Amino acid sequence: MNESKRLPRVLVVNKFYYRRGGDCVYTLNLEHMLRSAGHEVAVFAMRYPLNESADWEDYFPTEVSFSGSLTQKLRAVRRMLGSDDVASCFTALLNDFRPEIVHLSNIHSYLSPALASIAHALGIKVVWTLHDYKLLCPSYSRLSGGKVCDRCHSSRFKTCVLHTRCMKSSGVASILAWIESLRWRRRMLSRDTDAFICPSAFMAHEMELGKYPVEKLYTLNNFIPAIPAPPTGQRGKYYCYVGRLSEEKGVETLLEAATMLQHELRIAGSGPLYGKLKAKYDSWPQITFLGQLDSDGVAKLLGEAACSVLPSEWYENNPLGIIESLCAGTPVVGAEIGGIPELIDDNNGLTFTPGDSKALAAAIDAAVYGPWNHEQIRRDAISRFNPETYYARLLSIYKSIL
Where does the signal sequence lie (predicted)? Predict the structure, then answer.
């Protein structure tokens, strides 16, 4: 093949290699997309019992954990700050696979940003998809005391982290997060990365406020790996929430709103608040806790709902739950925070002030009765979030930095 026509060889990197969180799902979908388009692709991750099999898994560094014995914890801390074992494994893979692009996802703590520096030093281009705010905030979530925090733009984290204990409300975890932020400074990350892919305009704006170079910031929404079949069931009068049951997701605000309404709420998911919320609200006849559903169950739930709800109270980036709902033709009621409003317009949903249960109840009521064109919602979403559109934009980013 003509060298100018050959597709770049890509090394995809994430700390885990199985369907765990959004970053892991993205990594697997990205790998499949690139292979299907004709790229040579290798994967680098930490060894883990649940990992999917990979051709290059012999290069994976050993598992570390922040729980367990003191020795295990110390190994994990060394890994967080850049350890020789990861550097050795990664360098060996770079030398043997010889990628033109290293595409990073979630690498902090278990692999570390040292990977970007190693690739950069070897003249390999580095692309980094940002799934959270770790490059801006030591605690990654931009939450402090359960509330959104904007103090991290200054990159002076000491007072913020140590006084508020914003990393898991733990003094030790917060100190480690602060030390990690000192080790991997923004100037170094900016120097060693050629392109930061921001799944939302909100993320790109926050990165700009954090003094990352604007010319390296690319806004590119997430994608669905395959076009879903049109829903076949009848639409009900219920509304639904699909996701993690945790404080920052605003589920308690949603349940307060649900007590003001007669429409049925179906909640799919688990998390740290599951037991508490189920015990408190399970007796309400219009509230149903479904637990964790598989992908088919989620598709059916979304496809037959009057609307779905994302009541988040933290800076969501580009939530896949909204994309999946819209691709099923189901309108969304979403909080006006982070990247959520970028996905919702007058034709596919409604927004409300985060944390306001009365405003949320009113929006849900309007959405359940709204005159929605479900097929148009589905067509518009598929046109925007299909894998072909994503790949074309991604390839143009790759080519622009090579």
Answer: none
- Cα-atom radius of gyration of the chain, to the nearest Å? 22
State the architecture of 239-384 in CATH terms. 3-Layer(aba) Sandwich (3.40)
What is the per-residue pLDDT across 193-225, written as a single tens digit (0 to 9) for each? 999 999 999 999 999 998 999 999 999 999 998
pLDDT at 363 over 90: yes
Long-range contacts formed by 188-194: CB under 8 A, 24+ apart:
188/113, 188/117, 189/113, 189/116, 189/135, 190/216, 191/120, 192/113, 192/116, 192/117, 192/119, 192/120, 192/126, 193/104, 193/116, 193/120, 193/126, 193/127, 193/128, 194/125, 194/126, 194/127, 194/401
Q: How many residues are given for the chain?
A: 402
CATH of region 10-129+185-225+386-401, choose from 3.40.50.300, 3.40.630.10, 3.40.50.2000, 3.40.190.10:
3.40.50.2000
Q: At what angle do helices 171-183 and 70-80 cross, to 10 degrees?
A: 30
* Phi, psi angle pair for 72, to nearest 5°: -65, -40
d(CA 298, CA 39): 31
What 8-state DSSP symbol labels residue 276? H
pLDDT at residue 156 in the model: 58
Give domain limits for the chain: 10-129+185-225+386-401, 239-384
Is the pLDDT reported for residue 3 higher than 60? no
Measured distance CA(235)–CA(230) in Å, rounded: 12
- pLDDT at position 4 over 50: no
Read off the pLDDT of each residue in 75-98 and give the average, rounded to a whole number.
89
Give Cα separations from 202 to 194, 195, 209, 243, 316 (angstroms): 20, 17, 11, 21, 9
Q: What is the mean pLDDT of residues 12-25?
A: 89
Cβ atoms of 243 and 310 within 8 Å: the answer is yes
What percentage of residues in the chain have a pLDDT greater than 90?
Answer: 69
99: nearest Cα among 7, 197, 190: 7
Rounded to an integer, the average pLDDT of 14-31 is 90
**401: pLDDT strictly greater than 80:** yes
